Amino acid sequence: MIGHCDSNVLSVLLKQRLQHNNKRLRRIFINPEDACYMTDYDKYRPSRRFYRETIDVQLCENVTAGLLLPLLNDMIDHIKGFALTVTGGGRESHLKDWTCFSNFGSPNIRCMNIGFTSATESIFASVIRNCPALEMIEFHHGAKPTSIIYNALQSLPTLHSFTINNEKTCNTLPNSVNSRDLLNFFTHYASLGDQSTLDEIRLCHIDDLDLVTLLEMTEIETLKEVELCDINTPHNLPLDHPIQALKTLSLLERIVIKMGYREVTDVGIQQLDCKTIELSSLEYITTEGISNLIKNSSKLEELRVSNCGNNSIRTDIIQTLAEDKNIVFSP
């Protein structure tokens, strides 16, 4: 793990590998200078669970493609994923340094976690196309994918997991996305029916996401896991309808709904049914709504409820109902 990154750091790493044939080095994590940039999601995001052989460069403005590419190319036969945040800040000279990165890629790479600017989106779209075995893609730190990125993703034959996480960091606010382009992306996978490869979607900390886009997501019949956290809709419309529509997904195994003060009521949650359901920070749901969820369920094995109902949820009632149906309940 490296804290302050410049050309000397990457040069030393490359020199050590070349001189000592150090092929045991599998994981490089270059941390931002200020620890507050690293969110909890960064620390525990799904890519870290699955791909330990990674290069991870986060919010280090001094890192350019010219510095990073020699090390990446030297480790190309060993790494299975990389995480990279490009923060160009609009400086043309800095952005030019990333042009050569568009040629990077490998059939070994399974996981990619990227933050980019509008000026570097096409570069990362090229990288995605150069990684034909990519299974997991995550966008973070205010990245706003458009059809440029989505078209590249749709060319992949093995994409399983898709995440947009715009969690607030020290210098990054939750951002809106291009809802229409995301809608078209979901429509593509919905049109594939049971031939779709996409089985995980996580949408976190996103502003101005249209309800019709969320509803289209629920048409992707291969989904096994859906996570919706802190999503704002235009005019703050209630989210009950798209959440309720998740009940139509027969393969769904895990649902996570965490909405803060966004309006989700009993109508949205009480028909949900899958193996694991996590409900957090849902102010408008009630003990009755959660009770109905349990009573209506046939697949539910684990239920987690925290900070819901303005802290008025009767956990004793929920616990009794859960035990009667052999459901593990965690308040």
Number of domains: 1
Helix content: 25-40%
Question: What's the total count of β strands?
Answer: 13
CATH first level: Alpha Beta
Largest beta-sheet details: 13 strands, parallel
Shape: elongated
Query: Quick check: average pLDDT?
Result: 82
State which percent range the strand residues make up: 15-25%
Which structural class is indicated by helix and strand composition?
alpha/beta
Q: What is the topology?
A:
Layout: H1 7-20, E1 28-30, H2 40-44, H3 46-50, E2 54-57, H4 65-74, E3 81-85, H5 92-96, E4 111-115, H6 121-129, E5 136-140, H7 147-154, E6 161-165, E7 175-176, H8 179-191, E8 200-207, H9 211-217, E9 225-231, H10 240-244, E10 254-258, H11 266-269, E11 276-280, H12 287-296, E12 302-306, H13 315-324, E13 328-330
Parallel strand pairs: 1-2, 2-3, 3-4, 4-5, 5-6, 6-8, 7-8, 8-9, 9-10, 10-11, 11-12, 12-13
Helix pairs in contact: 1-4, 6-7, 7-8, 8-9, 12-13
Offer a few descriptive terms.
single chain; 331 residues; alpha/beta; Leucine-rich repeat, LRR (right-handed beta-alpha superhelix); 13 helices; 32% helix; disordered N terminus; LRR_dom_sf
Describe it for me?
By secondary structure, this protein is an alpha/beta fold. The protein has a single domain, classed as Leucine-rich repeat, LRR (right-handed beta-alpha superhelix) (Alpha-Beta Horseshoe), CATH 3.80.10.10. Helices cover 32% and strands 19% of the residues. The protein has helices spanning 7-20, 40-44, 46-50, 65-74, 92-96, 121-129, 147-154, 179-191, 211-217, 240-244, 266-269, 287-296, 315-324; strands at 28-30, 54-57, 81-85, 111-115, 136-140, 161-165, 175-176, 200-207, 225-231, 254-258, 276-280, 302-306, 328-330. Strands 1, 2, 3, 4, 5, 6, 7, 8, 9, 10, 11, 12 and 13 form a 13-stranded parallel beta sheet that branches. Helix 12 (287-296) links the parallel strand 11 and strand 12 (302-306). Helix 6 runs parallel beside helix 7. It is elongated and about 60 Å long.
